[in-house]
Write a structure and sequence with these properties.
The complex is a heterotrimer of chains A (137), B (355) and C (273).
Chain A: H1 2-31, E1 44-47, E2 56-61, E3 64-71, E4 74-79, E5 90-92, E6 97-100, E7 105-107, E8 113-115, E9 127-130, E10 133-136
Antiparallel strand pairs in A: 1-10, 2-3, 3-4, 5-6, 6-7, 7-8, 9-10
Chain B: H1 2-17, H2 19-28, E1 31-33, H3 42-63, H4 71-80, H5 85-112, H6 121-143, H7 148-159, H8 168-176, H9 183-215, E2 229-232, H10 233-258, H11 260-263, H12 285-296, H13 300-315, H14 317-320, H15 332-354
Antiparallel strand pairs in B: 1-2
Chain C: H1 2-17, H2 23-37, H3 44-54, H4 57-61, H5 65-69, H6 94-98, H7 103-111, H8 125-129, H9 139-147, H10 153-181, H11 188-208, H12 211-272
Helix pairs in contact in C: 1-2, 7-11, 9-10, 10-11, 10-12, 11-12
The chains are: A alpha+beta (137), B mainly alpha (355), C mainly alpha (273).
């Protein structure tokens, strides 16, 4: 009888100890939760004159750098994050290509890899021109 | 199979680290006197609360921005936007109050039980230093939210150094880093609060514990004979310590959930305005007695001097009171004087609250 | 003529005798009031304004006769001969008389429908605020008495209740803001909007006297009030949850301490054995 009482208490103490730990950890971990949820599901509007024909501009879209190119074919928007190691690509006007300065990755305006180490194409971002503004998303 | 693997791992490390020996010496083999009581758990509570302060403090540093423009809004975002930010900050603020309260109890029990006496003079002195550092942490942390309360409490507190003759004004400039409390002050206090003082506290906790282990824990002077050392620290007495820690945590939780106004008074809700002093600016309860004494003694220098002398007297107590008698009832004069001093201290706090 | 200048000297000596604290009133009362007080017995019409003014909020604010009527209170002979002196204003000059100080209210009034009303039916400042006994009117009681001659009763009560309900919402919003403030919400923007409503917007709207304009203006404040209320409700819910969590946490910590206590006693017993 004595032994069971002691065993019960030992377990109880262990459980409360674990519960205390969990009680502390739960808010502490949630405290570190990334704060990105508020910027998702938003469209981005840029005035058309900020991206004249032949030029490009990097903007933030849903927290990610996105390159908007005013090409001959029309307005193009791609993720600006190189799929190799995450540097930002830039618009090479003369060659009509996107170029990553870190390891010389090259992409065309559909996002396809033309050369260099990038393993995957750049993801596309929906874009349209409405009146005098460019709308992403 | 699993147990034997655990065993193997333990022995692999034990051969290299020798932790079996350490555990034997400091855990199972560390025997405490038979008549030890709850008052001797205060140190453990303080250690646990300090750990909690470090943990919550590190978490707060993640979102806190130590600039005069951003400090208050970052605090506001911690309180309203960051998940459980209010909880972390409330624990940090309430924990500080409870820690200082327990620190008082720890020192009072040492005082009345004569535990500061030979051979434990160094335990007492390092304890006093820890007390001073803890108050320093409280004072420096107070400025960081950059609220009206922070700003003006710090203005008043730093102003006291001007009472020092000749160098007072220069010293004030060095403490604040500028003529008024400003970004320079915030930077200084931030560095003190998150780096300098915590490191010093950790260092002195180690020293304090080292002295406690080398002199052995003091025992209540209640038994006629030398008490036998029979209670193993681990696992037995740790349970008693944990019990007291849980009670202290319950006190913290009470302040956090049901008495937030105690930790965050009205003026702490308003961002600092260097051009408007709030009506009733008052220090926290643990500085209230000192503040009240300064107001009662009309001469500023005298007021500070009295406190410095009293502080020195307390720190040097083991070297002044050298009689070996420890039982409070067998040294009635000392006990009576201590009680009167304590009542006076509480009276000053009460008077400060009343005004 | 000589008699009057003797009176002037008498008045002037009175003025000199007055302590500086009374100087402002004394200066004004010097000529206007002392002379008009002399009419108390036989020409009450000329005395009455003085008595009314003494009960007015203008008196409290230190606005004296010349503030509205112009004239020179220091020179008894010339007191009513200066070019800016207006003894009895016509209905069309009243808005400009009051509008000397209350400039924005004048603009609101002049652009509102009341100022376009012609003839004797045209309400002016004094219709609601009285002449001489100038008072800040209370919305609840002025409207019915003054407006029924032109407006339908239900129109009046609608206008009245509309402004009053926004007013009440604003009061409630103020209370909710206090609570938000105690929960670390930044209320400075809302406070500005509510203060503007209390101090000027509300007054302007009443003087505009056009329900459609009033409605579109009040929509702004109603939107803010709605936002405040939403935040208030969220905090109220969180607080209830917080209190519950608090009770649970404290109970858990205390019970854990009890469990540890009993477990320690068991361990102690087995050690003694």
């Amino acid at each position: 009888m004595k032994e069971t009482r002691r065993h019960f208490l030992a377990w109880l103490v262990r459980i409360t100890g674990l519960a205390t730990l969990a009680g502390f950890l739960y808010p502490f971990i949630l405290y570190l939760k990334p704060l990105s949820s508020s910027i998702s599901a938003q469209t981005v509007e840029i005035p058309l004159e900020e991206v004249p024909p032949g030029e490009a501009k990097i903007v933030s879209y849903r927290g990610n750098p996105t390159i908007v190119v005013h090409a001959k074919e029309g307005m193009v928007a791609l993720s600006a994050v190189c799929t190799h190691l995450g540097c930002l690509v830039r618009w090479e006007k003369a060659r009509g290509e996107l170029f990553c300065p870190c390891h010389a990755g090259r992409f065309d305006l559909t996002g396809k890899v033309l050369g260099g180490p990038p393993p995957r194409p750049l993801p596309k971002v929906p874009v349209k021109v409405v009146g005098s503004s460019i709308i992403l998303g | 199979m699993k147990i034997s693997l655990r065993h193997k791992l333990f022995h692999w490390f034990d051969e290299r680290v020798g932790w079996g020996e350490i555990a034997k010496k400091h855990l199972h083999g560390y025997l405490l006197p038979e008549n030890i009581n709850a008052w001797y758990s205060m140190g453990s509570i303080l250690l646990a609360l300090f750990g909690l302060q470090v943990l919550t403090g590190v978490l707060l540093m993640i979102y806190y921005r130590p600039t005069t423009e951003d400090a208050f809004s970052s605090i506001r975002s911690i309180m309203t936007e960051v998940p459980y930010g209010w909880l972390i900050r409330s624990i940090h603020a309430a924990g500080a109050n409870v820690m200082i309260f327990i620190l008082f109890l720890h020192m009072l029990s040492t005082l009345f039980m004569g535990s500061y006496k030979k051979p434990r003079e160094l335990n007492w002195v390092t304890g006093c230093v820890l007390f001073a550092f803890t108050l320093g942490l409280a004072l420096s942390g107070y400025l960081l939210p950059w609220s009206q309360l922070s700003y003006w409490a710090t203005t008043v507190a730093t102003n006291t150094v001007t009472t020092i003759p000749r160098w007072g004004d220069t010293l004030l400039l060095w403490v604040r880093g500028s003529a008024q409390v400003s970004q320079a002050t915030l930077g200084r206090f931030f560095a003190l609060h998150v780096a300098v003082l915590p490191l010093l506290v950790i260092l002195f906790i180690l020293l304090h514990l080292f002295f406690v282990r080398s002199t052995g824990i003091s025992t209540p002077p209640t038994l006629a004979t030398q008490p036998r050392k029979i209670i193993p620290f681990y696992p037995d007495y740790l349970l008693e310590d944990l019990k007291m820690i849980y009670l202290a945590l319950a006190l913290v939780a009470f302040l956090v959930f049901f008495y937030p106004g105690f930790v965050f008074p009205e003026d702490s809700l308003i961002p600092a305005d260097p051009f408007s002093t709030p009506e009733h600016i008052k220090p926290e309860w643990y500085f209230l007695a000192n503040y009240q004494l300064l107001r009662l003694i009309p001469n500023k220098i005298l007021g500070i001097l009295v406190q410095v002398v009293a502080g020195l007297f307390i720190v040097l107590l083991p070297f002044i009171d050298r009689s070996p008698e420890r039982h409070p009832l067998r040294r009635p004069a000392f006990t009576l004087l201590s009680i009167l001093a304590l009542l006076g201290y509480i009276g000053l706090i009460y008077a400060g609250l009343k005004e | 003529m000589r008699k009057i200048s003797w009176l002037a000297i008498f008045c002037f000596s009175l003025f000199v005798l007055f302590t500086p604290g009374w100087a402002a009133e004394a200066q004004e009362e010097e000529v206007c009031v002392t002379c008009h007080e002399m009419f108390k017995g036989d020409m009450p019409n000329l005395y009455h304004p003085v008595e009314l003014w003494r009960q007015s909020s203008h008196k409290v604010q230190g606005v004296t006769c010349t503030g509205c009527h112009g004239g020179n209170p220091k020179d008894e002979a010339e007191s009513m001969s200066t070019p800016d002196f207006i003894g009895k204003p016509s209905a069309s000059t009243i808005p400009f008389m009051c509008g000397k100080c209350h400039t924005d209210i004048r603009e609101e009034y002049l652009s509102g429908v009341h100022s376009f009303t012609s003839g004797s039916r045209r309400p002016t400042c004094i219709t609601c605020h009285n002449s001489h006994n100038i008072q800040p009117p209370i919305l609840e009681n002025i409207i019915e008495h003054q407006c029924v001659s032109c407006h339908k009763a239900e129109e009046i009560t609608y206008f009245q209740s509309f402004i009053l309900s926004v007013n009440q919402d604003a009061e409630k919003g103020n209370e909710e803001l206090k609570m938000l403030h105690h929960h670390w919400v930044d209320i400075s923007i809302y406070q500005k909007i509510l203060n503007a409503w209390k101090n000027s917007t509300r007054v302007k709207l009443i003087h505009l006297s056009e329900l459609d304009k009033v409605k579109s203006e009040t929509e702004k404040i109603s939107a803010s009030l709605k936002e405040i209320h939403q935040k208030y409700e969220i905090i109220l819910r969180n607080e209830a949850l917080k209190k519950k969590t608090g009770k649970f946490t404290i109970a858990f910590l205390l019970l854990s301490a009890v469990a540890l206590h009993f477990y320690y006693r068991e361990v102690e017993k087995s050690r003694k054995r």
